[in-house]
Amino acid sequence: MATASNRPSSNARERVASAEQPPPRSAGRGRTARVVAALLALPLLVYLLAPIIGLLVRTTPQIWRSYACCWEAATALKLSLITASIALVLSVIIGTPVAYWLAHYSFRGKNIVDTVIDLPLVLPPAAAGFALLLLFGQQGIGAWLLKHGIRISFTLAAVVMAQVFIASPFYVKQARAGFEAVPRELRLASATLGAGPARTFFRVTAPLASHSLLAGGVMAWARALGEFGATLVFAGAFPGRTETMPIAIYTSSTTNLPAAIALATTLVVVSFAVLLIARGLAERQLRTSLAIYPALDR
User: Fold this and answer.
1) In a domain, 283, yes or no
2) What is the pLDDT of residues 207-224, one digit of tens each?
3) Phi, psi (5° rounding) for residue 239?
4) How many CB atoms lie within 10 A of CB 103?
5) Which residues contact 235 (CB under 8 A, 6 or more apart)?
6) Residue 73, H or E segment
7) Which of 69, 115, 154, 215 is in the most buried spot, having the most CB atoms within 10 Å?
């Protein structure tokens, strides 16, 4: 009787085990789909990598030492790094409240605010620079500011302002996504424990959204580093004053092609290294956040 009674349970276990094993045909289909997806992604990857590889191949060590280490290149790179970093700090300061506001509150005209934030992403940079020049130049409030000894257009401040205008939406969009991913019950729990809005933000919301904030900051910094059109129109191209790395590449391309190649290679290498390091830090921060609160992975 004991043997007979165990047969149904044994057969049931066998049926469950066979059901858990994926059919060989579905596994083959999964591998085929993966190969097809990789082949479909290949054209874009080749299109993006081919110009970069071509640039690196044409940059010989002799060309790089001759032009990338000269005073003009070093000054332009230093100016780009400084202004992009300042633009990042300003974007975080003025962009974080906007991202939090859009993430957690509904109000009339929210779509219009969203459109205004996205506008610099689609607006031609030259048009953005021209609009800034009309507002802060001699045709706008710049004339009044100049009477008080303050000049904005064609100065270092104009470089930073152009970079903030173009790059800040990249940070706002990533920061908003990070704030929206933080569970509402955590913020409510913090409030019930007596924490105010500011304490809840700095102790709960910001740490859990830190990976998105870091990713947005990196994207904003990289966009500011590569900004060209708005900076050229609003700040000009004065060596040592407003000539950033992209502008130096443009001006060199018309007079000294090897110098432009060396400058472009330097900017590509610096940008790639910063993005790679920041991406690693963001992924590490995301794993830390998931370890603290696994529900963020849902």
Assistant:
1) yes
2) 888 888 988 999 999 999
3) -55, 135
4) 18
5) 153, 154, 155, 156, 158, 159, 162, 242
6) helix 71-104
7) 215
> Domain range holding 215?
67-287
Domain CATH code at residue 107: 1.10.3720.10
Residue 42 belongs to a domain? no
- What CA dihedral angle connects 170, 172, 174 and 175, to 10 degrees? 150
Query: How many separate domains does the chain show?
Result: 1
Residue 16 lies in a domain: no
Q: What is each CA distance from 83 to 89, 242, 245, in whole angstroms?
A: 10, 10, 11
Please provide the DSSP assignment of 118-187 as one string. HHHHHS-HHHHHHHHHHHHSTTTTHHHHHHTT---TTSHHHHHHHHHHHHHHHHHHHHHHHHHHS-HHHH
- In whole angstroms, give the CA distance from residue 1 to residue 3: 5
Question: Tokens 């790395």, residue?
Answer: 245
User: In the numeric block, which tokens belong to residue 293?
Assistant: 């609160």
Residues 237, 292: Cα–Cα separation, whole Å: 49
At residue 294, the pLDDT reads 60
Query: Inter-axis angle of helices 257-292 and 210-225, to 10 degrees?
Result: 170
How far is the CA of 278 from the CAs of 48, 155, 179, 242, in angstroms?
Answer: 21, 30, 19, 27
What is the pLDDT, as a whole number, of residue 291? 65
CB proximity list for 250: less than 8 A, separation 6 or greater: 228, 232, 237, 260
Residue 6 in domain: no
CA-CA-CA-CA dihedral for 135, 141, 145, 150, to nearest 10: 0
Look up the pTM and report it. Answer: 0.81
pLDDT tens across 243-291, in order? 999 999 998 888 888 888 888 988 888 888 888 887 787 777 667 666 6
Contact 246, 226 (CB under 8 A): yes
